[in-house]
Structure formats: C-alpha cells, structure tokens
Design goal:
With about 270 residues, the protein is mostly helical. It folds into two domains: about 120 residues, no CATH class; about 150 residues, no CATH class. Helix content is about 75%, strand content about 5%. It contains ten helices and two strands, in the order H-H-H-H-H-E-E-H-H-H-H-H. Strands 1-2 form a two-stranded antiparallel ribbon. Helix 7 packs antiparallel against helix 8.
Length: about 270
C-alpha cells in the first residue's frame, strides 16, 4: 500500500463498490417487511413518503419520518450500521457544507456572535437543520427501496406506471454498464499494480492516471457498443422482462394504503 498508494487505494475502492452491489442483492433476497410487498407498492409507497418529506415544513414531522424510515429499514433486514456508513455520514458531510451558510445569512434572533460581526440565528439554525433532515430522510427512503428491491423489479414497476420505455432502457443500460466499467477499471489498476516495483515519482503517477483515463474511455466506448449488440442479439427491445410476474395481494393493498396515509398525514401536519 505504501509503495503504490494511489493504485492500491483505487483498486480497493472498486472492489468495495462491487461488494456493496452484491450486498444489496443479498438484502433484496431476505425475508423482510418491504421484501414481502409487491415491487410496485414499494416504489409508489416510498416515492409518496419522499414527496411528503420534500413538502413538509416542520422539523418535527421530518424527524418523525426519519425515525419511520429507520424502523422500516430494520424491519426490512437493512442494518442501521450500513445506512450510517453509506448514507447518513456521507449525506451529512455534503449537505452540511451547503446548509452551513444558512445559519449565518438567515435573519432572525442571534444566539451566538463571532468576530467580524457574524451571527448564528435561531431561524438560520432551524433552516439548516430542516435542510439536513430532509435530505437525510429522503435519501434513506430511496436507499432502503434500492437495497430491498432488485433493480430489474424497480424498472419493471416503473414501466408498469407508464414511464417512457426510453427512460427505463436508459436506467437499465446505465446500471449494467456502471458495473462493467468498474470491473474493467479494477482489472486495469490491479494489472498495473502487479507490474509496479517500488514507488513511482509523482510526475509518472500523473502520466499513468492520464493514460489510464484515456484507455478506460476508449474501452468504455467499445464496451458500450458490444453490450448494446449483445443485448440486441438476445432479443432485448427496450422492455424489462423478469421471470416473476407482479400480482397484488391483500397485504399489498394494505401496505399501499398505509404508505399513502402516512404520506398524506405527514404533508398535512407539516404545512
């Protein structure tokens, strides 16, 4: 790792990305609350909750939805540790940077004063907290949906809602192509790492990164054409087909009603 930190860290990053994808498939096969519902119910129900989070203006309502998302994740066999590492901390870091200025520029009652005339106001603190809570909750709902639902089922559910075929085709190709690209890049860096002796100079490392990016871009174009032709040869015409058919059961109708009621109540209370 010390001899070739960049190559090794990049290879480890690609490997972790693939392991996360495999873990998602394992969670989707487990017996949990969401896994027992029809894929269409999961998509429309969690989308309704995301809309409720977006429209809610009260921090207490958004926090209640966040707690509900965490409970739903636990009942669906999704580890809270996984959500904390893959979602909550990452979203907090990025959203916190965006929300930080709101604490200083939002007019209101000052609660802290710093040098240079900067003030943290109560209204600014509430605005920043509401923004972070909204993003955390919405991303948690969408992550739970993706972890508990195979991607092919998500695409078929979107297609059943009359989403344009071009959109579902683009999503299917992007999902498949990303993993092929990650695997190709991982093989390239692993091959380079196995042939590297000693520590490369910084200038050589920069040239290696530029050459690798160019080769990866060229391979990605060729790979995209090969994947498209392979899918066409196997009968793909833009429609997602899976072996299992969707069928609504009483528990699915009950789950859909619960999702819609929870979303409507959150919107009404969060006005």
């Amino acid at each position: 790792m010390k001899r070739s930190g960049f190559i090794a860290s990049t290879t480890v990053g690609f490997t972790r990305a693939l392991s996360h994808a495999l873990m998602s498939e394992e969670i989707a096969r487990q017996r949990g609350l969401l896994q027992a519902l029809d894929a269409r119910v999961r998509v429309i129900g969690l989308f309704a909750l995301v809309v409720a989070v977006t429209l809610s203006r009260r921090l207490a309502v958004v926090l209640a939805l966040f707690v509900g998302a965490a409970i739903l994740a636990v009942l669906s066999k999704v580890s809270l540790g996984t959500l904390a590492k893959r979602v909550w901390l990452v979203v907090l870091a990025f959203t916190g940077v965006i929300a930080l200025p709101a604490m200083f520029v939002t007019p209101g009652d000052p609660i802290a004063t710093f040098a240079g005339g900067l003030h943290i106001t109560t209204q600014g603190l509430m605005t920043a907290a509401l923004l972070i809570a909204r993003v955390e909750t919405a991303v948690t709902f969408t992550t739970v949906l993706i972890l508990c639902t195979p991607w092919a089922h998500v695409l078929k559910a979107l297609h059943s809602f009359r989403l344009p075929r071009e959109v579902t085709t683009m999503l299917a190709m992007t999902h498949r192509y990303v993993f092929l690209l990650v695997e190709t890049a991982s093989q390239m860096f692993e091959s380079r790492h196995s042939r590297t002796v000693g520590r490369l100079p910084r200038a050589e490392q920069r040239r290696m990164v530029a050459r690798s990016a160019g080769v990866l871009l060229s391979k990605s174009i060729d790979l995209g054409n090969d994947v498209y032709l392979a899918m066409q040869a196997r009968g793909f015409r833009g429609e997602v087909r899976i072996l299992s058919d969707f069928s609504m059961k009483p528990r699915d109708y009950a789950g859909l009603l619960a999702f819609l009621c929870a979303g409507t109540l959150a919107i009404w209370m969060g006005r």
